[in-house]
Amino acid sequence: MTDRTNFAARVPTYRRHKPTGQAVVTLNGRDHYLGKHGTPASQEKYARLIAEWLDRERISTGAERRGPRGDVTIAELILAYLRHALDYYRDSPKEIEKGNRSPSKDWRS
What separation in angstroms does the CA of 7 have from each of 11, 33, 50, 85? Predict the structure, then answer.
């Protein structure tokens, strides 16, 4: 079983792209080429990209609102699921027939 804290803290690695000899890092499934592998310029570009990526990840996950272990409360989990379900099942034929397209606007905010 994978430890959640180690998984969440995993930082993409600086590595060498063998065919071209360039440094590369993969962020969110996209390769970013940094220049010649091992040069100070490529390492600086890596550090800058990682810092920006970590900042975006922290903001998108709401980690700044959570405790030091990144705990999610039951209420936050339920609210996130309800938002997902309302959006995912919005155009469900059964909901359209019932006239219940959107139960409550305040749940979506």
Answer: 9, 24, 16, 26
The verdict on 82 and 37 lying in the same domain is: no
Q: Is pLDDT above 90 for 8?
A: no
Whether the predicted pLDDT of 37 surpasses 90: yes
Q: What is the DSSP-derived secondary structure letter of residue 13?
A: P
- Residue 88's domain comprises 74-107
Q: Under a CB-based contact definition with an 8 Å cutoff, are residues 43 and 13 in contact?
A: no
Q: Are residues 52 and 11 in the same domain?
A: yes
Q: Are residues 8 and 52 in the same domain?
A: yes
pLDDT in tens, 58-78: 666 555 555 556 677 788 888
Q: What is the pLDDT of residues 14-30, one digit of tens each?
A: 999 999 999 999 988 89
